[in-house]
Amino acid sequence: PLTMAFREEMTRIEKARTMPHRALAKKDRLALTVKAKAELGSVAEKIRDATALDTIAWLSSWLLQTNNNSRYGEVDFSQFEKRAGRDLAEAVRTGFARLWRTREPTFKEDEPNSTYHITAAGLQGLHMELSKGESLPNLSPDEVRQAIRYGAFEINGYPDWFWALVSAHQEIASRELEKIANAAGDGAVSRAHAENLFSALDDAPQSIRDRLAPSAWNALKVEGANGQAYIVGKMLRATKATLNNRKAIDQAVVWGSHWI
Q: Are 113 and 158 in contact, with CB atoms under 8 Å apart?
């Protein structure tokens, strides 16, 4: 459970957010009380080793307030560092980096429209390290696989670093993405992840498209006319050009005339 100081801080933020007749200034939204900072400092080592999960979840919810683009990962960590100080900020940065490496994304298969703050924290840690993917750090195969698993939980598209990471580690990434594609039947969350992947294949390297096109095509055949037109249409545009079988391409054209 969250400690009293953190509960009080979240209550204060929620109360300020819902106050009428007044636009909430960013400095009010992002205030960090002396009491909250002291409590964070008291568990700094547990934050650093990613064992203070409730505190990390709270930090993730705080960081989400720095984000103006409706994404879980793309937070402005400098806002926290300004208020908490360099030492505590470094403990948080280290803890978030350890979190995504050592903990699988938390989710419930039957709740596709909800994301846990601890999972958002993993995406935030990845954003701090990988940013837009322009200068990727050296990552082990396990780290690449784990980053891809977390990337599937971002909203409004994949993280900015996602396809750069995939392109840089195509063999490892293709196997992990194939797992996501083939897990579509596991439940609502896995299905949403597979559909998001199929509909984003335009952004993938050609080798990834070639590998995943059969899985996407099988999903289309299973869903038929019950699929969402937008998703099905994007899947077709992303995959039909990679299908080598002439009959399959002809069938894609038939589907495309219905959906696109």
A: no
The model carries a pTM of 0.81
Q: Tokens 């039947």 correspond to what residue?
A: 185
The mean pLDDT value of the chain amounts to 83
Mean pLDDT of 201-225: 78
Mean pLDDT of 121-137: 96
The helix (run of H) or strand (run of E) holding residue 60 is helix 53-64
Query: In the chain, helix, strand, coil percent, each to 5?
Result: 70, 0, 30
Identify the sign of the CA torsion 89, 90, 93, 96: negative
* Pairwise CA distance, residues 34 & 36, whole Å: 5
Q: What phi-psi label fits residue 114: left (phi over 0), alpha (psi between -120 and 50 degrees) or beta?
A: beta
Per-residue pLDDT, averaged over 22-41, amounts to: 76
Q: Could you say which DSSP state residue 175 is in?
A: H
Residue 48 CB coordination number (10 Å): 19
DSSP string, 28-45: HHT---HHHHHHHHHTHH
| Residue (of 88, 71, 72) closest to 80 by Cα position | 88
- What is d(CA 166, CA 43) in angstroms, rounded to the nearest whole number? 35
